[in-house]
Amino acid sequence: xxxxxxxxxxxxxxxxxxxxxxxxxxxxxxxxxxxxxxxxxxxxxxxxxxxxxxxxxxxxxxxxxxxxxxxxxxxxxxxxxxxxxxxxxxxxxxxxxxxxxxxxxxxxxxxxxxxxxxxxxxxxxxxxxxxxxxxxxxxxxxxxxxxxxxxxxxxxxxxxxxxxxxxxxxxxxxxxxxxxxxxxxxxxxxxxxxxxxxxxxxxxxxxxxxxxxxxxxxxxxxxxxxxxxxxxxxxxxxxxxxxxxxxxxxxxxxxxxxxxxxxxxxxxxxxxxxxxxxxxxxxxxxxxxxxxxxxxxxxxxxxxxxxxxxxxxxxxxxxxxxxxxxxxxxxxxxxxxxxxxxxxxxxxxxxxxxxxxxxxxxxxxxxxxxxxxxxxxxxxxxxxxxxxxxxxxxxxxxxxxxxxxxxxxxxxxxxxxxxxxxxxxxxxxxxxxxxxxxxxxxxxxxxxxxxxxxxxxxxxxxxxxxxxxxxxxxxxxxxxxxxxxxxxxxxxxxxxxxxxxxxxxxxxxxxxx
Length: 513
Description:
By secondary structure, this protein is mainly beta. It contains two helices and 35 strands. The strands form seven sheets. Strands 1, 2, 3, 7, 10, 13, 14, 15, 18, 21 and 24 form an eleven-stranded mixed β-sheet that branches. It is found in: Membrane.
């Protein structure tokens, strides 16, 4: 079997003195969920979440925490909300790559109820299941990190209760950080997102974050601390811009001819992964020899004759299959007399992006939402996707073009009016809006060629029945009873095959004979 496709970048960078100046933060939105005031933590500005979400309840934890962003959460009611999503909507720069990180610390907010297990969704794509049980039992918060492309002017991040959820879902913090163009740039972000599996600084005993990593990526320690003589290196030539600190420590790989490292430290599901490994050797010539290594993953050659120099190197694969335990093997290349080493590594699972609701339908639904009052709380994020979490009252088609086919908001306590743009939902087969307090005139719906049922009964619609309704050939049911309609009933509605109900209105005269 040939080795998997491998995209290699060898980045060389000159030996420079490490600047002590703090890198300026890039555009970022740091949301302290449930908080009521701004705060500054480690030089970064956090803001309350009230401007990004309209549902859920702010709660204060009653146990002490080390990180202030963990002291509050936003909680979402499970009761009557199974398979409903609650969405944060954040303004972004279209076409930019964003690191999205969600953080969860339970803190006993649901009393004696079990910790909730639930889903998290980005722009209609099911990202992952959130299960904080293991971390919380160890007294730790859980965080999930991914990289996604902003395909519009806003991005949505949603929490959703699934069939395994037993108590109210929640979230502690949410971050959107723009990444530089060069980061992870071999990935086709129009097709996939990246979900972090592991990111480690080898041979280090502390976490590396901002300001050492300008994007505030979390580099966790791995292995026993090993601090070689001082290194002066620059990382400006490596596309993923790892922080210089990861090259100040290393993980030397023993004395045998083949050195194996069980990394990432957890078994992986069968999937495709992005892998990046980082190396730098500030080699002292007095020890003699050069450091050249061969790298393999689970016995498959990853890179051969990699020369480790003070300039450093990054080797990455954008699509590599992994399953179960993973072993990274480093061995001296032919002719090399110096033991291998490794400084850092990242692994992401590739997340196939789901389809999205047709943009035209989204625009119409947003206009409808603006024209109505008391719309369902889950009318945020993508209207149709994921299909199991479509908006309340919305049914959508499947396939490559996701369209809205049913609008059923019967008895939802809605008020307001129907915008004329509703006629642009041209895949609609059923509109059921009865038993609300909708008012205004009935718009021209003749462009809805697929429409079969139109239920507007028990509302407060005024004006005349549009003559154009009689031009919808497939219309089988037209329920208009108990409104404030006037004028005459159009003659073209009095035809076989149409169930027409008009009682309880104020028509001036019976329909023409």
